[in-house]
Design a protein that fits this description.
Structural class: mainly beta
Number of strands: 51
Strand content: 35-45%
Distance between the termini: 35 Å
Length: 722
Amino acid sequence: MNRKIISIFTSCAFMLILCSFVPSYFSGEKKLEHKIEGKIVYNKKKHNIVLTWPAFGSSGNYIITRGGSRLASDFASVGSTSKLTFTDSKPNKDKYENYYKITRNDITILISLENQIFGSNMYFYDRKYEKAETARNDINSQFPSIGLGGSNGEWTTKRQAYYFKANVKGQTYDAGGSGSASSKEANAIELGFYSHIGGLGKVPSDVKLGSIFTRPHLSGGANATCTFWRSVENVEVMRDFGWTVSQSTSARRMLIESTSKYISDIGDTNFWGSGGFIADTHYTSTRPNWGGQQQWYTRNAIFPDGSASMGGSYNMVWQGCVNPPKADDANSPISTTPIIREKPFLFVDGDGEYKVFVPAWQKDRVGVSWSSTDMGKGQIQDLLTDWYVAKEGDTDVEINNALKAGKNIFFTPGHYALNAPIQVNRKDAILLGAGIASVTLEPTEKNTWGCIYADDKDGIIIAGLLMDSFNSTTYQVRIGNEGANADHSIDPILLSDITCRVGGVQSKNIQIQASMQINSNNVVGDHFWLWRADHGSQKGGEARWVRDRCKNGLIVTGDDVTLYALFVEHYQEYEVLWLGERGRTYFFQNEPPYDAPNQTSWSSQGGKVDGYAAFKVANTVKEHHTIGMGSYAVFTGNNGIVNKKNGFEVPNSPNVKLEKMCITRFAGPGNILNVINGTGGSTATGVKRVALYNNGAGIPPYDEEFNLPNAESYPAYIGMDK
C-alpha cells in the first residue's frame, strides 16, 4: 500500500534476533554471551527456585544476583557456587518477580520463569522494580538497532511484544514530558514495525503510559502510507497518543486521557496516511483528529461531547460510537455494532498467574466493553493449564498436537515456518498471536495447502496473526470446508486482526488461489488486511505480476457473515467475491493492482468488462448490505492505460443494498470508470460518490461461473507426516 509515491525497496534486511537473556541495559558489561541458556524450576510447596546452566567462563565461582524484574534498578547478591546449579531458598514472594544474573569472569546470563515460558521475543516491564523511564528507554533503544523504523523494517523477520505489568501504589510508567508525541520533549514510546504493546492489568487504567508515537519513514516523516504492522491494547495513555499509521495497525481497549493530535505533525509536507483501526476505546478529555487519513474505521469508541468532523478525506466509518461526527459525504456514523466479540488478551490475575480473558459475544453494542473497575463479560482461562505457549521454532506437528490435546495456542512473537497448515478442528479452539503482526506463518516447500485451516465448528477464534506464503498454496486461510452448512448463530466464529500477505519478500514465483475463503456460516471478521504486496524487496512492475500471483483476496460462500474493517488490495481478479446470503460489511478499503500490464490481460466476465470490480456480489445473491466503501485507482505499473469499469458490482435485487461508496484516482493514467454497475461517474474528473444503490437502474454484471478452489486441491484431513 503506497499512495502518491511508488517506492521500490531494493534490500531485504533480515535482522539479528536479540537474545532475551541479555537485555540492552547490560551493554556496559565487558562481554555478553548470547547463546547460553539456563533453566529455572519453581517448587510451589517449598517456595524455592532451582537454577541450572551450562558451563561458561574460564575460572572461579559463578556469582548469582537477583532482581525483581528484567531491568530492575537493583540486583542483590544471593550467593555463589562452583557448581552448575543453585537453589534460592528465599526468593521473592511472586515467582515471576525473580530474575537471576549468573556471572563468571566477564560473562553474564539472565534466567527467569517469564523468559522460559514466553521465549526471547517478549519483553516484560514492572514499575514496582524499575524507574519510570526504564521501559520507554529500553523499547526506544531497540527501535533503531534492529531497523524497525526505516523502510527495511517492513521486511524484517524480527517480531517483538512489550508487556507492562500493572502499576502499584499510584506509580506510572510516565517519566514526564510535554507537547505532541512526535516531539523530543514528549519522551514518547516509539513503536516500530512488527511491535506490540500490551497492558497486563484487568482494565486499561491498570497500566498508565505517557505518550506513544509511530514514526513514518517516508517523505520526511509526513507520509505514513507504509507505516504498517503494529498494535497496542489494554493501556491508558496519559498524555498524547500519536498513532500515525496505515493498514494492519490495531489499537484496542484503551483509555486515552489526553491527546493533542491523532496524526503526525512532523515532516515538511502535509501528512497523509491510508487508514487504520481503533476499537473499544475511551477518549476522556479531547476529541482527536484523524487529519490527512484517507480512510479509517472506528468501532465502539467513546468521545467527549460534540459532533464536529474529526478529519479524514474519503471514507470514515464510526460504528457503535458515542459522540461520533455527524454524517456527511466522508463520514458514516452507524448507531450500533450488531454482533461483536472483542479480541482475547493476556493479563496477570489477582493470584499472580498469567491468564487469558476471552470476552463474551454482545449484540447491538454501543460504547466500550469494559468500565474503570470491570473487565466486562467473558471467560478467564489459565495460560499454563489451558494453553500451549508456542515459541519461534515450534513446528506444525507440535502446534497441531497441542490443539488435538484440547489446548488453545498462544503464539509468542516469532517467524513460524510450517510443513503443513495449522488445523483447527474442534469447537471453541483459539489461536491468539501476541500482537496483530507478532506471528508470521510461512509455509515451507512441503506445504502446498496453506497456513491455517479451520473446520466448521462453533466458537473458533483466530486472532492477531500475519500469514505469509513463500511458496504456492491453495489458500492462506480457509474457514470451513467446502459445503459447510452448520448453524453457528449461538456461538459464531471470530476472526480478529488478521493479515494475509502475498509477495513483498520472496524472490521465486508463487501462485495462491485465494488469501482467505470463508465457507462457514455465522462468521464475524473484526479487522482484516488482505494484501497482495504492491511494493517490496524484489523487482516490481510486470515482474511482480508474474511472480506474485493471487486471484482473490477474499471469497465468502458462507451465509450470515459479518465483517468490520475490511482492507483488501491489489489482487489480480475480484478482490472480494461474495457468494453467501445475508452478508454484511461495515467499511471496505481497496486499491486495484498497480501492476496489471495491459487491458487484455486484465478483463473480466469473459473479456467483456475492463478490469475486475473490487467488491463483487454474485448475481445469485438475494440479500446483502454494505456501508462505507472506497476503491482508489493507482494504475502505474503497466505499459499502457489500464482501466477498471466498475468499483463495485452487485445484482439488481430489492434486498441487495450498498451505501456510501467512493472512488477516486491517486496516481497513474488509468481510471475507475464507474462507481457501481455502470453508474456514478469516472475518476477521470475527480472523486465520485454514490450514497445508495439498491435495486438501481445500473447494468448488472453478466452471469458467470466462478472457478473456486476444489476439495481435491488438499486432503480432508492433513496428515502431520506430510
